[in-house]
Specification:
Blueprint (H helix, E strand, L loop, with lengths): L6 E3 L2 H16 L6 H17 L4 E3 H14 L1
Length: 72
């Protein structure tokens, strides 16, 4: 049984989304909360290092989606 905290590799759609999201995050950085900044900065650093092998949970992807709605 999968839980919200179980991590898995990115899907190709998520990978593409994070690639598109980076410039939007940079452009709207000042609009993000401290938590959002810390979260997305950490995630994008892991994304830079691991690419498609970046591990993410459903809950983390929900946070990415919420940040996306603010910046894109």
């Amino acid at each position: 049984m999968k839980t919200a905290n179980q991590q898995r590799p990115l899907t190709i759609e998520e990978y593409d989304w994070l690639k598109k999201m980076r410039p939007a995050v940079d452009e709207h950085w000042d609009e993000l909360t401290g938590f959002e900044k810390q979260f997305i900065e950490s995630l994008l650093q892991r994304f830079d290092q691991y690419g498609m092998r970046t591990m993410i949970s459903q809950k983390q992807w929900e946070i990415v989606t919420a940040i996306s709605e603010k910046v894109m």
